[in-house]
């Protein structure tokens, strides 16, 4: 019976040793995996930090570009507004300018005729009466 107990004890010790070796191997494997995961996570954090810095730099450049483009847009809109005002003025004063041009063209053609020898001194222009200095 003692032999049986010794054999059972030896058997249990061998099982315990095997179980302990398996547990130690599992622990070492888990430690290796955790170390590899930490290294991968650290590398991932570094890469993501670099990507974030690059993205922030690009964002800053784009914001500055947007500011410049916005300034150009505002200048263009102001220029368009000033052109619009000039065009409105031209449209509002078109008839007056047309009459003035017609009068100028008429005056130039008469001046040309005078230079060519025409005499407009006796041409009546309407029912205007000239009054002399003394009223006669």
What's a quick, concise take on this entry?
With 136 residues, the chain is mainly α. The chain has helices at residues 2-92, 94-115. The longest helix has 91 residues, at 2-92.
Describe, in plain words, how this protein is organized in 3D:
By secondary structure, the protein is mainly α. The protein has helices at residues 2-92, 94-115.
The average pLDDT score comes to 88
Q: Helix coverage percent of residues?
A: over 70%
Radius of gyration: 53 Å
Instruction: Tell me the number of helical segments per DSSP (H or I, 4 or more residues long).
Output: 2
The fraction of residues assigned to DSSP E strands is: under 5%
State the low-pLDDT regions, or none.
none
The string of secondary-structure elements, in order, is HH
Keywords:
mainly alpha, 0% strand, 2 helices
Q: Which helices and strands, and how do they pair?
A:
Layout: H1 2-92, H2 94-115
